[in-house]
């Protein structure tokens, strides 16, 4: 099901320079798009690919308008990446297959769970006693929502996610472990997206809280009693240990880790594979990665790093001695 450029611009805005009757059959990358395909350019480092692109139309910003005009049809917009995001939503809505049953026959929904009349529950999902699913929320296949957990409106939970498994609470006793029952739940706000096989543990006493607009990628672990602020985004394989508090509008890149009981302020951005070992109270970009190297060189550097504290103490002693010499 194709769309004409004029219809796209009517729906999304932007300024069309070219043939509004051009039929678009597919969205495609800049480098491979063909005559009946629509693409976008947002990263300046790919400007060199614009002239060579065979795309029927390109979404561009005013900064590259001249180059786009020399190439062919284009849609002008201040933020091509945002425009493309909205275009994908339009495209999916236009090409969506007819909806099936709202609650799949294979789903297991406890009689005491509360499911909004507009929510959708996919195949093999489990929604346990006392759980609540808000308006317009979609649970894809094999999602588990444990007892007492709450998911707000317009959320999207991808296959295999587990909401409300027990947090990791154990008390040591004579060489064994005694389980601490997890008596809290999970509360998820509105417009949250949770990736495939992500786990959000229920709280020990109070609830684990995911605020409005949070976006979690695949294979993320959120420990018990964590709180994640609104509009924070976390990439795949990242993890947050119990009772950590992450502020609003933060980002945690892939495989980033946050230790328990720490606090991250609003606007903190953690680089990929970084380990956060202390609270961060100032917005900004933070990185804590020991650089990759040839193994022999890495081992030497790691060995040197082990002596860093003693070296620091020696330098302090030398500085103190020099200061005393200068006084005498």
Top keywords for this entry?
alpha/beta, UDP N-Acetylglucosamine Acyltransferase, domain 1, nine-stranded parallel sheet, Udp-n-acetylmuramoylalanyl-d-glutamate--2,6- Diaminopimelate Ligase, Chain: A, domain 1, 328 residues
Shape field = flat
Number of domains: 3
Outline the biggest β-sheet.
Answer: 9 strands, parallel
Query: Which whole number gives the mean pLDDT?
Result: 96
Estimate percent helicity.
10-25%
Tally of DSSP β-strands: 35
Tell me, what is the CATH class of the largest domain?
Mainly Beta
Oligomer: single chain
The third-level CATH topology of the largest domain is: UDP N-Acetylglucosamine Acyltransferase, domain 1
- CATH homologous superfamily grouping of the largest domain: Hexapeptide repeat proteins
Q: Taking strands numbered 1, 2, ... along the chain, how are they ordered across the largest sheet? A: 8-11-14-17-22-25-28-31-34
Count of runs of 4 or more consecutive helical residues:
5
Low-confidence stretches: none
Using the CA coordinates, give the radius of gyration: 26 Å
The secondary-structure class comes to alpha/beta
Distance between the termini: 88 Å
Beta-strand percent range: 25-35%
Q: Per CATH, which architecture of the largest domain?
A: 3 Solenoid
């Amino acid at each position: 099901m194709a769309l004409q450029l004029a219809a796209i611009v009517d729906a999304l805005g932007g300024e069309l320079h070219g043939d509004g009757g051009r039929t678009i059959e597919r969205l495609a990358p800049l480098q491979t798009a063909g005559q009946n395909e629509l693409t976008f350019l947002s990263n300046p480092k790919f400007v060199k690919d614009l002239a060579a692109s065979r795309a029927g139309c390109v979404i561009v910003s005013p900064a590259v308008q001249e180059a786009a005009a020399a190439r062919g049809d284009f849609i002008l917009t201040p933020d091509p990446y945002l425009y493309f995001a909205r275009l994908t939503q339009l495209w999916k809505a236009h090409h969506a297959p007819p909806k099936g049953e709202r609650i799949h026959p294979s789903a297991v929904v406890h009689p005491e769970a509360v499911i909004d009349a507009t929510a959708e529950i996919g195949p093999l999902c489990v929604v346990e006693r006392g759980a609540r699913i808000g308006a317009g929320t979609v649970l894809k296949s094999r999602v588990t929502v444990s007892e007492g957990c709450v998911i707000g409106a317009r959320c999207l939970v991808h296959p295999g996610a587990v909401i409300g498994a027990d947090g990791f609470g154990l008390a040591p006793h004579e060489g064994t472990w005694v389980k601490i029952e997890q008596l809290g739940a999970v509360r998820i706000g509105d417009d949250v997206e949770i990736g495939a096989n992500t786990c959000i543990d229920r709280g020990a006493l109070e609830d684990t809280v995911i605020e409005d607009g949070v976006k979690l990628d695949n294979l993320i672990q959120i420990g018990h009693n964590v709180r994640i602020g609104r509009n924070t985004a976390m990439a795949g394989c990242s993890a947050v240990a119990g009772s950590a508090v992450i502020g609003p509008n933060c980002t945690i890149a892939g495989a980033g880790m946050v230790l328990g009981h720490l606090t991250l302020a609003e606007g903190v951005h953690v680089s990929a594979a970084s380990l956060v070992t202390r609270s961060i109270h100032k917005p900004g970009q933070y990185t804590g990665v020991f650089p990759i190297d040839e193994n022999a060189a890495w081992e030497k550097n790691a060995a040197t790093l082990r002596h860093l504290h003693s070296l620091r103490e020696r330098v302090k002693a030398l500085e103190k001695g020099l200061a005393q010499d200068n006084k005498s």
